[in-house]
Structures
1.
Amino acid sequence: MKIGITCYPTYGGSGVVATELGKSLALRGHEIHFISYAMPMRLNAFVENIFYHEVEINNYPLFEFPLYSIALASKMVEVAKFHEIDLVHAHYAIPHATSAFLAREIIKSQNGKIKDIKFITTLHGTDITLTGLEPSFLPTMKFSIEQSDGVTAVSQYLKDKTLSNYKINKDIEVIPNFIDIEKYKRIDEKENRCFKKNYAPEGEKVLIHISNFRQLKRVPEVIRIFNEVDKKVPSRLVLVGDGPDRSECERLARELDIFDKIKFMGKQTELVELLSMADLFIMPSQSESFGLSALEAMSCGVPVISSSVGGLPELNLHGETGYIAEIGDVDRMARYSIELLTTPKKYDLFSKHARSRAEFFKEDNIVPMYEKYYEKVLNS
Ligand code: GMT
């Protein structure tokens, strides 16, 4: 198949999933055309049948706001015309589904001069639970989802939320996120360049959190949970990522007088080395449709202590791969962490279960689900 993929290229799990999907599909023999305003971050190796088309936007003084959605639709039409793509796969509904709709209709109006395309929208989370609900977007979002030739959601939770939030009557296919379990595999302590000794010289336990430090990730709670754990089990905290709440987190760490025990790493690309020295992954999010970074941790054998929101209970099995607690229940999350860190037999079992749960989401299981779905939509 010839597939156009549109995603946010720089930040966030939706762009990561879209790019990894494109790479995987290309290795399975499909021709993939990424269409975006910048090169997707994870598109870092040459693959023969992957192409990248940059959307350029003219900044005419009259346009106070860049007209990206229109420029994206025009680029989709151009790519469809010259590369004869079969379908566009839009990741994150806003504005990608709307641009794809526009492109499909423009192509249709050409009466066969350009081969018709279909478009599939993959819903990732905040496009449904947050941004899409704003009155300035809601009617357009509802329309664009309804008009999609196919819609997928990354969890059952997100599917249900979409149907109830938007009151639409549409088949939505649940295709969960996936992971390269060969890459995301715990590196043996002796071979890991991130020597645990440098981070935890006295054999302290290591808690880790990875996110974009937006408010809904509740990173200050990670610090509070760590503070409680450290009182009972000497520990270190590794915080990976950057975003609006980082300064507040640094302030809180100083206020609690635990700044020296926390490493603020900022944005990092090589996560396997960091995850391989971690004992627990902490994710107290207020909203999470799937929790890709928790899956990455689990694949490296790291049990997860998370909130019970959204799609997290579909991924993190309570009492098996980690524990879940109500949003904001810092004490409970700390208690669960202490329990696991002080019960080695239980910990080992949870670590093994985390890895085998992650194996369920391996690329070879999930990517064929997309291929099958593409075929179904194209033949409908
Ligand atoms: O929440 C983020 O950090 C980014 C966001 C995105 O759209 O890039 O992530 C969403 O999509 C990911 C990939 O499908 C999911 O793993 C995240 O759970 C989801 N985030 C939320 O629902 C808040």
2.
Amino acid sequence: MKNVLVIGSTGQIGSELTMKLRSLYSGNIVAGYIPGAKPTGELLESGPSAIVDITNEQQIAEAVSRYNIDTIYNLAALLSAVAEAKPQLAWKIGMDGLFNVLEVAREMNCAVFTPSSIGVFGDNTPKDNTPQDALRSPRTMYGVTKVSGELLSDYYFIRFGVDTRSVRFPGLISYMTHPGGGTTDYAVDIYYSAVRKKTFECPLAAGTFMDMMYMPDAVRAAIEIMEADSSKFAHRNAFNVTAMSFDPEIIYANIKKYKPDFKMVYKVDPLRQAIADSWPNSMDDSCAREEWGWKPEYDLDRMTQDMLEKLPERIL
Ligand code: AKB
């Protein structure tokens, strides 16, 4: 990777990934954004930025040509719960947008990273230790676009030789940028409530297990897979990756270790609960470990300590 375009650079992953790439590489790391979500502060000042709406192929091509881009991180997407409210828009961004990115990559010789998700799995997949090659039959629009995106990305690799790579991210937890509209967002929101000394209303029931990962691990996964020697890949789009699996009771108990007065009550959101129930409790990520050396660094307790230390500086 030398010159990189990050589409969706002001989102939850993009804001941290762009800064990390700028700290590692000396080329152009371009923060792509849509009007209304312009980068601010350090993200704006530390490198180039450009308006790149993923639904506009010409805009993507112009940024790639202007900055001599060799790698595109395609992070534009609607998360699972909001995609259920706006399925047409979710398809337009997730699929029409991906098609635009892949076409530009094919014509202008770029590698492409597009995150997939635990959302590719559905009710008829083994829930525990879900295998890499398990059946992908989601019931959400988010999952439908993610499975289709995996297939389309593999197609562009096989048919046109475009270097597409991807991971199936679990819920991502971070203190810098709020995710917004996901099913796993409760695991971010709970820290906000703990820091603000407010009772947390949990939208998922006790016993709802899902895979999760702290953002520094997620950013490292996104970079390491693009740097990996692909001759060792048996898979491409997309690798299961995980760092931990917990339910609301477990994360609550972990936060209470450091904030004994913190309180949580349940106020289950049926939409999010149904989505979470259709996803794995935990994924098997041994293929990522074997094929490109994936290994998480943060477990729940280390993440909690870091969140409780850094989040107050941002929100209080
Ligand atoms: C969501 O909850 O929609 C996302 C995801 C697991 O892909 N965080």
3.
Amino acid sequence: MASIPDITLNNGRTVPQFGFGVFQIEPKDTVSAVSAALEAGYRHIDTAEMYGNEAEVGEAIARSGLDRADVFVTSKLSNNAHEPDDARRAFDQTLKALGTDYVDLFLIHWPLPTRYGGDFVATWRTLEEFYREGRARSVGVSNFQPRHLRRLHSETEIIPAVNQVEVHPYLTQDELRAFCAEHQIAVEAWSPLGQGNCLHDPVITSIAERAGRTPAQVVLRWHLQRGDIVFPKSVTPDRVRENIDIFDFELEPADADDITALNRDERTGPDPDTFAGQ
Ligand code: NAD
């Protein structure tokens, strides 16, 4: 298998462009799922406090026998922990659960409307502390719109290394991605398969048939060729292996354009402009 490319972040650190997401994987299934992913060659795991499975992610990495430095680990701050002291406690708890003294990337999971008590600028300054302490090797945000990013730009010091947002063929996010590119913020595409929804689209199935690949491989390849970072989720070992087997082919530019043209601004998850957390 050809190797997974790295993306260089705005602070000079690198992240494998392809990884494994563990949203909605039950804690009881997480050790085996992450172990299968590490076994298949994944070296980047995306979790969050709100997923409830950080401890199991940490356990799978420890059991793998891999060096900690060889696995890129991301976690995210819970929506109920935006207050700086809560964020400090939550971050300590994340490191403890993962069984590590640093994460490679720590994100504000959702900006939250300020009327719900969130003040993502104060929260961001707390993440800047974690970065300066070296306990978060990079810091970033998730589900931020340009207006949120503009506030961070004018009121804080560190530019987020990444913005992790929903992106898939039915939600191509071209304006937000262009804004991030202009500000040296790498884009991480969450729900890269649209949670499976776009895999039966006739445009995608016909490209897959011609390429001799599966629809999931075609969609993941489309993301990579656009330059985004992806971490599809699956608990099925065959799919875990299928999803990483995408580094020995390329989509024709015209096919990639046809996939981009499927955009219909359709979200599978909440809208960051209205989502107030759970
Ligand atoms: P996804 O787009 O990765 O889809 C996962 C689903 O697609 C699986 O449950 C399975 O049903 C199907 N699937 C996976 N591989 C397949 C294959 N080869 N063939 C057919 N079907 C297949 O959706 P996701 O899990 O929502 O997103 C991936 C990751 O993104 C998450 O695990 C999480 O790490 C991250 N995420 C972040 C946020 C955020 O707010 N920051 C929100 C959602 C997800």
4.
Amino acid sequence: MRALAGFALAVLAACSLGAAGPQVGAGSEWTSPGGDPGKIHHSALTQINAQNVNNLGLAWQAKLGTMRGMEATPVMVGGVLYTSGVAGRAYAFDAATGKQLWAFEPKVDMQLNRTACCDMVNRGVAVARGKVYVAALDGWLYALDAKTGAVVWKTDFIENRKKGDNSTGAPEIAGDVVVIGMAGAEYDVRGSVTALDLETGKLRWRWHVVPHDPALGPQETPELEAALRTWDPKSRWDIGGGGAPWDAIAFDSETGYLLVGTGNGGPYATSKRSPAGGDNLYLGSLVALDPKTGRMVWHYQQTPGDDWDFTSTQPLILTHLKIDGQDRSVILHAPKNGFLYVIDRASGKLLKASPIARINWAKGIDPATGKPIPDRAASDYTDGPKIVFPATPGARNWHPASFDPATGLYYAAVLDMGNLIFMTPGQKPLKARGLNNDAALIFTPDVKDALATLPPPMAEAVRALPAYAEALREPSKTQIRAIEPLTGKTVWSADTAGWQDRAGVLTTASGLLIHGNVGGKLFVRETKTGRVLKTIETGTPIMAAPMTYTVNGVQYIAVMAGWGGGGFPYVPRYSAAYDRGNMNRLMVFRLGGGKVNQPPLLPPLEVAPEPPTQVAGANAEMIARGQGLFFGNCAICHANRHRSITPDLRRMQPGTHELFREIVLGGALVAGGMPRWDDILSPSDADAIHSYLIDQQKQTRSDELAKVKAGKPLDGPSLTILSNY
Ligand code: CA
């Protein structure tokens, strides 16, 4: 009763403050990862509030036994908490007691792990009609019996198994279909959204984001014929074009449309992907589809001619705003490209767009056409390296944002950073199921560090860029911000531990904003000011968004913990995973709960073992070739940092060295998540990579022995990322 009363009060509060429309967020249940039908990540619950939050403590927790990125927001329906984990595992718990009701582990083709740029993550489940829907990493959608976890049906939703498609998103229910997108635009994919019958899993429709090679015949739909005019007929159709809609799929119950944010172009640079240029529809766009037919109703392209991995797959918030005196039904959306957009849900028309981070790929947005005014001089890296703002990890990424109807503010983690980006030479042949983004990135939390890794002429060119001076002028940062949706103005901001410290957020009608950090803390702030009201040390990184619900009149706050996602192998010093590992768990809090036990500290580092003698024929040339192959294929998962999620290959034991070819080419460790590479790498390639790693291990061992001798700690160097993701 207490919770119900709170709910009613919250409704009144929202109305009396003049919030447009009846939207108040989620009630006692949290029915989809976004919470309510608008996915505003806001709760009407008020039992936990500023006066009593100091008593917030652990109600129960579930250790999941895995050690990867946790990105899902749990769902609570009928007293059961459902969530997902590594590669599409799913779990059901009694939401009050934490008793595990069932766990489901899909049999995943680990070979597809090779095409998961950004960890074996999963962003949640859909629950409807007594079933729980979850998508496995290898592109199978499972319908599970909500009571038992038994498989009711499963459907392979990947169109072309020769490609590198994978899946990390949460399914979305739209009428009598369940809709799922796919991931993999760094690889060789053609983006698509698939709708399956809720009851049978039968394919109902598939919508393709980009056209196929026109030489193969007519496109699937008239909208793709229209899109074709924005592509060079000689585009790299073999690579697929990209556009993978890996998140940001929302059914809008007001318009009846299925709203989809599409992904980046592949390869990255338009000059390689579509040499004659063009907007390359429908990359980097929001589209509205008719969920009955799968046909497009409208589109709005946020990043025409994407060169920078600027996905529009960041979470959509559906709400109402008063604009020029009129109540408008809108999408609030901040994609990677640095703007916060307000878009009319019915027409797709741009209403407002405001920068929320430094941007140099566009000079602004033309309000008449809704199109960005490109700044090619600053951001086209076809003829030389550029520092582009925002960086490819995006001003925003998957971390859920929240909209609070009472304050009218948009709350989100925002990254303000540029990155160095440059072409790799020439047009490369297709690498089937391989990285085909074909551009090199260096993230520049410290741009001077990045330059030290470049050949001198390139470093010189970078120093001459205005963006270099800008990067020096103001260091990069990630903040939790409260933002006015119509102006982009920051009302308050709170610095996080570092640029990789981003997290999803929850707001409640009691004026609380709750979010974690990768340092393992859970923060409760005041929505109006950002002031911290309560901090809970958990010792496990928290990137996922918290959610809240009530059972038997008690309000709970739940959150998934685990480091990972894009750049997952690069564990920053400020991540709790660095000191305490990455034990995945679901933590649930309530008033009067107990203390959270932090996982124990990891043992101190030991000096890298002695490497074996070099492989036959190893010389400087072979080692350099191995280094190139390593960065082109392996570095996306193997950071070779001693505190990483994947093994540090500078510390291989003799047995691993002995089996090196078997592991890389023969798939000896596929079950453990290490795919086989014999379709891309030859035995001589594997040997070259091995020679590079032996060389690295020799170097590492000698550096570390010197450190031990000098009495210095063995901690690794400061973070620099060179990556193709
Ligand atoms: Ca991407």
